[in-house]
Write a structure and sequence with these properties.
- The protein has helices at residues 15-23, 46-50, 63-67, 133-152, 156-162, 172-188, 218-230, 272-276, 320-338, 375-388, 392-408, 430-434, and strands at residues 7-11, 30-35, 39-41, 60-62, 73-77, 79-84, 89-93, 100-103, 106-109, 113-116, 164-168, 202-207, 233-237, 241-245, 248-251, 254-257, 260-263, 266-269, 286-287, 293-294, 297-302, 307-308, 310-311, 314-315, 354-357, 363-367, 370-374.
- It is an alpha/beta fold.
- α1 (15-23) packs parallel to α9 and α4 runs antiparallel to α5.
- The longest helix is centred in the N-terminal third of the chain and has 20 residues, at 133-152.
- The radius of gyration is 23 Å and the shape is globular.
- It binds flavin-adenine dinucleotide.
Length: 449
């Protein structure tokens, strides 16, 4: 590729980053996609991995597999740790080196969000969140392990703690997860244990709000609530958790003994705002201009969960559609600028609607004036989720699994797998520190272009 070709660095290959890469695939630019994972993850189905419906490989695809046919695109597996906006470079840590500089002409930050424990990070070891494949597998392990432990436990008093599952946060993820757990214990596990009765497991969903699915219309929230109760989920509203430790959670002064607490409440954006020293909203998301650029830097775009933009007086939600539409917009705008064409009108989110599934054959759907609950909404939910999976092979595999689970109640992946801990990025050893002076790879490093 000629040195004159501008380089667009995209950090993050989630919904926003991939949409941007796709929008640029035929442009005369060099696209460098940097992600700390080698896969694009379909987060809306993470709860199905955590509850054993699907296996990890059914909701994630290798980034190379997705953009492999984009001839102008290079994928780098590395973690971005900072941005030098003045010199137009990002810094990355790869497996064996730290602080490598990567130059850009345009930068698209699409680094998503992580868990927020609302200032109670001490809860984290006892209440894992659900954000990555590793989180989902770890929760699956904990849930299945609890039943195994209870079966092996002679003292029936301990069964209660082991078979009590507390979910904190009754937004879509908490509701979907609670319903899927209820079905797991009442169908798939029901007849397989001898000393314990899996159907006696308690699933408790806690939220400080006054209703479940707080962002949905009241009628749909009420329908979801009725469905949860029918599935045997205990819903505790109006009070958040006061404390979580190894023995369980305290809610409104009551200690709920539980060995499995799952956090599905807050999200915190990536540190992009700190890297850029840019203005952020109260949640820490980067305030972007109407064209998704950062004030004073028309070459830097921030999209998706890590960006903050108001539309008609309300902040845009942290959902996949917003990220995809913003990524596509950023890619298009760069394309037009490079061709010397007129700028696009300000970004405007087109809301196609929101959905949440509440167990087998039941979902709630809100789209403009349409409010639906029940089987038809569930069919729509299934169709939309299949459509947005990244690859056709996943669509087929997930469809077959869902039909099988629907007809038989059997789950796709009920394995307890304790992966050996792999070495993490961003924590250089003494040797790494010494190797900081290693020459940068040609073609990527600052100064080499
Ligand atoms: C459990 C769950 C369920 C959800 N359900 C729904 C739903 O049903 N419908 C819906 O619309 N939305 C849902 N969402 C929200 C939706 O998934 C997000 O809004 C969407 O993923 C945001 O896209 P994004 O591109 O901003 O970030 P992400 O998709 O999160 O992608 C961010 C990418 O950046 C990478 N990254 C982060 N930091 C770095 C770094 N420093 N260096 C390199 N790479 C980095 C990550 O590895 C990741 O690949 C759900 C989210 C979760 C967690």
């Amino acid at each position: 590729m000629s040195e004159a070709v501008p380089r667009v660095v995209i950090v993050g290959s989630g919904f926003g980053g991939l949409a941007a890469a796709k929008a640029l695939r035929k442009s005369n630019v060099e696209v460098v996609v940097i992600d700390r994972q080698n896969h694009h993850l379909f987060q809306p189905l993470l709860y199905q991995v955590a509850t054993s419906v699907l296996s990890p490989g059914q909701i994630a695809s290798p980034i190379r597999g997705i953009v492999g046919k984009h001839r102008n695109t290079t994928v780098i597996l590395a973690e971005v740790t900072g941005v030098d906006a003045e010199r137009k470079r990002v810094f990355v840590d790869s497996v064996d080196r730290a602080g490598i500089a990567v130059d850009y002409d345009y930068l698209i930050l699409a680094t998503g969000a992580s868990h927020s424990y609302f200032g109670h990070d001490e809860f984290a070891p006892f209440a894992p969140g659900l954000k990555s494949l590793a989180d989902a597998v770890s929760i699956r392990n904990r849930v299945l392990q609890a039943f195994e432990q209870a079966e092996a436990e002679e003292d029936p008093k301990r069964h209660r703690d082991l078979l009590t599952f507390v979910l904190v946060g009754a937004g879509p993820t908490g509701v979907e997860m609670a319903a899927a757990l209820a079905e797991l214990v009442r169908t798939a596990l029901r007849s397989e244990f001898r000393r314990i009765d899996p159907t006696s497991a308690r699933i408790i969903l806690v939220d400080a709000g006054k209703r479940v699915l707080g962002t949905f219309p009241e009628t749909l929230a009420a329908a979801a609530m009725r469905r949860l109760e029918k599935l045997g989920v205990e819903v505790r509203l109006g009070h958040g958790v006061d404390h979580i430790d190894a023995d369980g959670a305290t809610v409104a002064g009551e200690c709920i003994a539980s060995k499995t607490v799952i956090w599905t409440a807050g999200v915190a954006p990536s540190p992009a705002g700190k890297w850029l020293e840019a203005t952020t909203d109260r949640a820490g998301r980067v305030r972007v201009q109407p064209d998704l650029t950062v004030s004073g830097h028309p070459e830097i775009f921030v999209v998706g969960d890590t960006a903050s933009l108001d539309q008609d007086g309300h902040p845009l939600p942290g959902v996949a559609q917003v990220a995809m539409q913003q990524g596509r917009y950023a890619g298009k705008l760069i394309r037009r600028r490079l061709k010397g064409q007129a700028a696009l009108p300000p970004f405007r989110y087109f809301d196609k609607g929101t959905m949440a599934v509440v167990g087998k054959g039941f979902a709630v759907l809100h789209s403009g004036p349409v409010n639906l609950s029940g089987f038809v909404a569930w069919m729509a939910w299934a169709a939309v989720h299949l459509e947005f999976l990244a690859q056709s092979s996943l669509r087929v595999s997930v469809f077959v699994q869902w039909v099988w689970t629907y007809l038989t109640g059997q789950r796709g992946s009920r394995l307890i797998v304790n992966y050996h801990e792999s070495r993490s990025f961003g924590k250089p050893s003494m040797d790494d520190a010494a190797s900081k002076a290693v020459p940068r790879p040609s073609g990527l490093a600052g100064g080499s272009r």
